[in-house]
Design brief:
This protein is of the alpha/beta class. It contains six helices and eight strands, in the order ββαβαβαβαααβββ. Strands 1, 2, 3, 4, 5, 6, 7 and 8 form an eight-stranded mixed sheet that branches. The chain is globular.
Length: about 200
């Protein structure tokens, strides 16, 4: 049984989750949602249950604010296609906040655009008139490198950068076996997936 925090994943549920589980989705997109204090009370009750039951809650709140205030300790934190939106000036604080809401030995599961893969695609481009997939690749590259001005990508992620930032303060460790460099997610294989263990 696990308590799982699913950060700003919108419609994406956590991957490879055990059952039963207690999942808290935090995203500012939810219309139907539960107040954080109600979810905290439910989490306390769920800990003491003898009957296995899955519960899922949606919280409409900024994830920084949620992690700063919650008293819930999670077994797993899932961060799919969100970390690249965290400004590089806030990445270290974000990782610190994650470390405060996960138990020791807990796992953080991250999926981000792999900028090594994107760079290789750019370097492999040939003149437009002979590149049959130029327009499709250009949409993918522009979206994954920049995104929309209202929700820009603000930090760069590669396997080396994942190790650097997540292991910097010695709160987490990323085993090499827990890094997938061309992970397919949402119909694209340009993602980096890694799992960091809370030390």
């Amino acid at each position: 049984m696990e308590k799982i925090l699913n950060i700003a994943a919108g419609r994406f549920p956590p991957l490879d989750v055990p059952t039963p589980h207690f999942i808290v989705n935090v995203d500012t997109m939810f219309y139907l949602n539960t107040l954080p204090e109600q979810v905290e009370r439910a989490a306390i009750r769920w800990d003491s249950r003898t009957v296995d039951k899955t519960e899922v809650y949606n919280i409409n709140e900024d994830v920084f604010k949620f992690m700063e205030r919650t008293v819930i300790t999670f077994d797993r934190v899932c961060i799919y296609r969100f970390l690249e939106h965290v400004s590089f000036t806030q990445v270290e604080y974000f990782i610190y906040l994650v470390s405060t809401v996960i138990r020791k030995g807990g796992i953080v599961d991250v999926i981000v655009p792999n900028y090594e893969t994107l760079a290789e695609m750019i370097l492999a481009e040939v003149p437009v008139d002979v590149h049959q997939n130029f327009h499709a690749d250009n949409i993918l590259l522009t979206t994954e490198l920049l995104n929309e001005p209202s929700c820009p990508h603000a930090s760069i992620w590669t396997p080396a950068r994942a190790h650097y930032f997540w292991e910097l303060e010695r709160r987490f460790m990323i085993p090499q076996s827990d890094i997938v460099e061309n992970f397919e997610f949402d119909g694209r294989d340009i993602y980096l997936r890694f799992k960091a263990e809370r030390l």
